[in-house]
Design a protein that fits this description.
Mean pLDDT: 80
Low-confidence stretches: 1-39
Largest sheet: 9 strands, antiparallel
Number of domains: 3
Strand content: over 45%
Number of helices: 4
Length: about 525
C-alpha cells in the first residue's frame, strides 16, 4: 500500500476570507489613486476570482502533534489511517542487568562465592563483558609475600585464569595491599556448581605457604557478552505507554462508527529462549478521560513469541498478532470518542519452566515491540461535528472604503456524505461578531454505485453578501472558528469506504463594490 503523509485540511478553507481581503486591499489602493483625479464620484464593481482548489481525503484528517500518523492506500484506493506507537526495545540488560560490585570475601586460601545469578537460573557458560577485578590483602608478615590467584571456573583460549602479585614489606606491619584493576573481558565462566572458586597461594621467601589475616576480591561492573543455560521464569517489562489517536482531536459531537478497527502488535525477538506475553492492561481512553478495557481471547490466552534456537544464533524471529472485530470488543470500544490506546505488557521468560531447553543471549540480543492502531475508513457517520479555531486579524483600515462584497461559492462534494459548514468570526475575548455564511453551507453527498463507490458529486452554487456594516464589524476579528457537520446516513444505510481520490472542490469569486 502507498503511504502518504497527512496534512491539515481546514487551513485551505480558512485562507479564503484572508485572500478576499488581500484582493480587496489591492484594489482599494488603486481606487485611492483614481480619487486623486478631479472626477465625479462613481461606483466601481470589480470581479475577482479568489479560490480554485480541491481538498482530498489527505486534507480531511487532522495531523497528529506527535507525527505518528500516516495514510495507507490499498490497490483498490481504499484509505486506512495508521497510528504508530513508540517502538520499545529491550536488550541483554533487561534480563541480566549490570551489577556494579560483587564482593568475594577471601577468608582462607580456597574460597567459594555464589555466582551472580538468580537461584532458578542455570548458567552453563557465560562470557564476561567489560568487567574488572581487584584484590585486597592484609599481610601480617614482616617480609615480602608472593601471591598467585587462580579462578578454576574462568578460562580463555584453553588457559585457566591466573594472576600474580607481590605484597612488598616496607618496614611497617601490617601491609594493606590493593591490586591494580584487572580486566576479565572475554573470559568464560563455566558454572558447574553455581559457585566461583577463588584460590590464592601466598608464600614467603622460605617457600612456606601462608594465609593472610584477611583478604577479598571484587568484581566491578559485572556484565556478560554471552550467556547459555536456563534462565528461569524471569519477567521483564515492556516499557510501552500509549498510541495517540489524533483523527478525533476536533470531534465535538455526533457518532463515528468504524467497521473494522485493529490494534496490531509486532514483535521482533533474538533472545534464544521461550517468551510469552503477559497483558497487564490494554485499554482505550476516551476524549472524556474514561478508560475502557479491551476484552479478547488474545489477552486471556496470551501469545507465545517465536525465538531462535541454539543452532539459530544471530537470527531474529518475528511474531504478529492483532485485536480485531473477530477476537475482541474493539468495534464497541471505537464507537466511543477514543483519544488513545494504552497498553502495559510484560514478557515472561520460559513460561513452561522447561529446564531441558537450553537458551542463550548475547550482547546483540534484543526484544522489540511496536503497537499500531489501524482505522480503515469504512463505516458510517451520524451528525459528526468537527471544529477548530485559528488566529485571524482583520483590523484593516482600507475596509472603510468598501460598499459591499458578494461572494460566489461553487462547491462539488465527491464524498458519499452530506456536509454542512459554517465559519464564525470572534474577537480576542470570544465575542461572536458574525458568520461567514448566512445559513450553513450545504454540500450534498455524492451518490454511490452498488459497491458503495462514489460516482462524483454535483456542482452547487451559493451567493453570500456582506454590506459595509458587516464588513466594518468583522474588522474586529481576531479568531475564526470552523464548524463542519458530516452525515453518511442520507446517502446509504450501509457502511461506506472513503477512497483516496474523493475530494471537495471549491471555486470562490467575489464582486467588490466601492466608490470612486
Amino acid at each position: 500500500m502507498k503511504i502518504l503523509q497527512i496534512k491539515k485540511w481546514h487551513s485551505h478553507l480558512l485562507l479564503f476570507p484572508i485572500v478576499v481581503f488581500a484582493f480587496f486591499i489591492t484594489n482599494c489602493s488603486e481606487v485611492s489613486d483614481i480619487n486623486s483625479l478631479d472626477r465625479e464620484e462613481q461606483e466601481l464593481e470589480i470581479a475577482i476570482p479568489l479560490i480554485n482548489t480541491e481538498f482530498s481525503v489527505n486534507d480531511l484528517i487532522s495531523d497528529d502533534t506527535e507525527n505518528n500518523v500516516a495514510i495507507a492506500v490499498d490497490d483498490q484506493d481504499r484509505v486506512t489511517v495508521v497510528y504508530k506507537g513508540d517502538v520499545v526495545r529491550q536488550g541483554l540488560a533487561a534480563i541480566f542487568a549490570p551489577i556494579p560490585v560483587v564482593p568475594a570475601p577471601l577468608l582462607d586460601s580456597i574460597n567459594d562465592i555464589p555466582v551472580p545469578f538468580a537461584s532458578d537460573q542455570r548458567v552453563d557458560r557465560a562470557i564476561f563483558g567489560k568487567t574488572n577485578m581487584a584484590y585486597r590483602f592484609i599481610s601480617q608478615f614482616e617480609e615480602d609475600v608472593n601471591i598467585t590467584v587462580t579462578i578454576p571456573q574462568l578460562s580463555k583460549d584453553g588457559e585457566i585464569f591466573t594472576t600474580d602479585f607481590l605484597v612488598k614489606y616496607e618496614g611497617t606491619s601490617p601491609v594493606d595491599f590493593i591490586s591494580d584493576s584487572i580486566s576479565i573481558e572475554g573470559w568464560t565462566l563455566v558454572d558447574d556448581e553455581k559457585i566461583i572458586r577463588i584460590e590464592y597461594d601466598a608464600r614467603t621467601a622460605d617457600g612456606e605457604r601462608q594465609v593472610f589475616t584477611s583478604g577479598a576480591g571484587f568484581f566491578f561492573n559485572v556484565t556478560f557478552d554471552y550467556i547459555e543455560g536456563y534462565f528461569g521464569s524471569e519477567i521483564f517489562d515492556i516499557n510501552g505507554d500509549f498510541v495517540a489517536i489524533g483523527v478525533l482531536d476536533t470531534w465535538r459531537s455526533g457518532g463515528l462508527a468504524f467497521e473494522d478497527p485493529k490494534v496490531k502488535v509486532f514483535v521482533e525477538n533474538s533472545f534464544g529462549f521461550p517468551v510469552r506475553s503477559i497483558f497487564n492492561t490494554m485499554q482505550v481512553v476516551t476524549t472524556t478521560g474514561e478508560m475502557l478495557d479491551m476484552e479478547s481471547e488474545v489477552i486471556d490466552n496470551n501469545v507465545d513469541f517465536a525465538y531462535p534456537k541454539l543452532n539459530e544464533m544471530g537470527q531474529v524471529k518475528t511474531t504478529e498478532f492483532s485485536f480485531t472485530k473477530d477476537n475482541s470488543n474493539i468495534v464497541d470500544l471505537f464507537k466511543e470518542k477514543v483519544r488513545r490506546v494504552t497498553y502495559d505488557i510484560d514478557a515472561g521468560a520460559n513460561p513452561d519452566m522447561d529446564e531441558s531447553i537450553t537458551g542463550f543471549v548475547n550482547e546483540d540480543s534484543y526484544f522489540l515491540v511496536s503497537v499500531d492502531v489501524e482505522l480503515p475508513l469504512n463505516g458510517s457517520v451520524n451528525n459528526l461535528v468537527l471544529q477548530d479555531t485559528i488566529d485571524l486579524d482583520l483590523d484593516i483600515d482600507d475596509l472603510d472604503e468598501a460598499n459591499n462584497a458578494e461572494f460566489k461559492n461553487v462547491i462539488t462534494n465527491d464524498f458519499p456524505a452530506d456536509i454542512t459548514l459554517q465559519s464564525y468570526f470572534y474577537t480576542e475575548d470570544g465575542t461572536l461578531l458574525d458568520s461567514l455564511f448566512k445559513d450553513r453551507l450545504f454540500m450534498p453527498g455524492a451518490s454511490v454505485d452498488g459497491s458503495g463507490v462514489s460516482s462524483g458529486g454535483k456542482e452547487v452554487i451559493t451567493f453570500e453578501n456582506f454590506d459595509a456594516t458587516r464588513l466594518q464589524n468583522i474588522k474586529k476579528t481576531k479568531k475564526m472558528l470552523l464548524n463542519v457537520k458530516i452525515n453518511t446516513g442520507q446517502v446509504s444505510s450501509d457502511p461506506l469506504w472513503i477512497l483516496n481520490d474523493y475530494g471537495i472542490k471549491f471555486k470562490v469569486g467575489a464582486k467588490i463594490k466601492t466608490t470612486l
